[in-house]
Amino acid sequence: MKKKIYFILLCGFLFSATNINAQVVAQGTTGEVQWTLTGSQDNLTLTISGNGAMGDYDVESGRYFDDQSTVRYPSWYWGDYGAIMHVHIDYGVTTIGKEAFFASSLITVNIPNSVMHIGDWAFAESRLTSVFIPSSVRHIGKSAFSSLLRSDGYGMRNFTFIWVSSDNPNYSSIDGVLFNKDKSVLIRYPEGRGGYYRIPDGVYVIGNEAFSHSSFLVNVHIPNSVGSIEDRAFVFCNFSMIIIPESVHTMGNDVFASSFIDAIGLLHKTPPTKVWDLPKESRGYGPSVSGRRMLNGRSISLPIPVCIYVPDKSLEAYRTAVGWRDFPCFLSEYYNIVYRR
């Protein structure tokens, strides 16, 4: 009898504890749908439910302007609710709003097969580890799964994998990397991944900010199928050297901005007509002696030039071409140094 009473009391305690942990902490509306926070302060779950679109927000602006009156934060940002670790979006929600989860602590999110639009910067700066894109998604906004210009250097360093439903008509993935459907455009490389990455043959465009903030990536192989590299494709990356094949004919702005890069291999036999926006100074650390850097055994004072390696027979053409001759350092593929002070 005592054992039976003890068992009943234990079940009641566990049921009560479950209710406490799952209690509603806060709730409200966002756009056309509702949101609910449940759980404990250090492990909250945010549920988005209803039919229609979430609201758009402007969280990023609040980081740079003292006047907060025009900044729109999601309602779950207000109050000392705690850390939102998980986001559950119910079927029926059609749009994930702009900056809806910007700089949040969320680790997991489920996107139902009713969502058609993911807004700009929707998950930017979050602690998300991976994401599955269902077949219903037709549009993924700008920098939806990337870092921005964070000063603390954290960014989305835990983000390592993007899955896409094989039935999605607009997007696909290969080994966790996001592409358009026919895999001709590389859209997003998850920045938490490291090592060496070989872009698949057949890719024609490296998209806007495709590799941005991939500080763990050691190097990237660009195949001869690539013809265009878009704006800020490799911003905030760390490469000792990257080789651009002769097939590339279009280069966007700030492609390597704020990157730690020492050398660029340019395989074009004739200098491109348009002078590309390539870095002239390296932010790399490299071997140095008393604030000086060694280049092919030669000591060079800081700031350190980014050296461009070109085909041996093209060396003089680059040195004299308008615009290209302004670059401080050209080397032939046989490492004959031509250094302009």
How would you sum up the major sheet? Answer: 6 strands, mixed
What is the alpha-carbon Rg in Å?
25 Å
Q: Count the beta strands.
A: 27
What percent of residues are in strands? 25-35%
Element-level helix/strand string: HEEEEEEEEEEEEEEEEEEEEEEEEEHEE
Number of helices: 2
Classify the secondary structure makeup into a structural class.
mainly beta
Main-sheet strand order equals 12-13-14-16-18-20
Which stretches are poorly predicted, pLDDT < 50 over at least 5 residues? 1-21, 63-70, 285-300, 334-341
Fraction in helix: under 10%
Alpha-carbon distance between the two ends: 94 Å
Q: What are its keywords?
A:
341 residues, mainly beta, six-stranded mixed beta sheet, five-stranded mixed beta sheet, 2 helices, disordered N terminus, disordered C terminus
Describe the structure.
With 341 residues, the protein is mostly beta strands. The chain has a domain at 22-159. Helices cover 8% and strands 33% of the residues. The chain has 2 helices and 27 strands. The protein has helices spanning 2-21, 315-320; strands spanning 24-30, 33-40, 43-49, 52-53, 84-89, 93-96, 108-110, 117-118, 130-133, 139-140, 161-164, 171-174, 177-180, 185-188, 195-198, 205-206, 217-221, 228-229, 238-244, 250-251, 260-266, 288-289, 292-295, 298-301, 307-310, 329-332, 337-339. It has a 6-stranded mixed β-sheet with strand order 12-13-14-16-18-20, with no helix packed on it. A 5-stranded mixed β-sheet has the order 1-2-3-5-7, with no helix packed on it. α2 (315-320) links the parallel β25 (307-310) and β26. The longest helix has 20 residues, at 2-21. The protein is elongated, with a radius of gyration of 25 Å.
